Amino acid sequence: MAEIVDHDAYIASAPEAFQPALQRLREILGRVLPEAEEIVAYNMPGFTIDGTVVASYAAFSKQCGLYLRPHALAEHAEDIAAAGLKATKTGITFTPRTPIPDDLVEQLVRTSREGVEG
Description:
Layout: H1 7-13, H2 19-32, E1 37-41, E2 44-49, E3 52-59, E4 64-68, H3 70-75, H4 77-82, E5 86-87, E6 91-94, H5 102-113
Antiparallel strand pairs: 1-2, 2-3, 3-4, 4-6, 5-6
Helix pairs in contact: 2-5
C-alpha cells in the first residue's frame, strides 16, 4: 500500500462502501475541532492539537474505526453500549450499516479534546 499523504487520499483509497462514513467523520471532527491540524500518522488520518492526536479514523476490510483519547471512551462507555457499538480502550468500530450517531461522535470528540491546549 502506498503511503497516504492526506485525508482526501485516504478516503479515496478506502473501500467505496466506507467512503461516505469516513467523509462524514472527517466533517464532524473538523467542525468540532476547528483549531486542529489534519495529519496522517501511521497511515491513518487524524486531528492534532499542539502535537496531541485528539481523534483519528480508519477503514479496514469489514469495518471502520474512530480513535480517541482513552478517557473519552471510558467516560461515554454507557452511551457507546446504548448505541449498540463496541469500544476498546482507544476506539470504536462500526460499519456503514450501524454508524456512530453524529451527536455521540461530537460528545466523544469534545471529551477527547479536554485537557489539550489549543
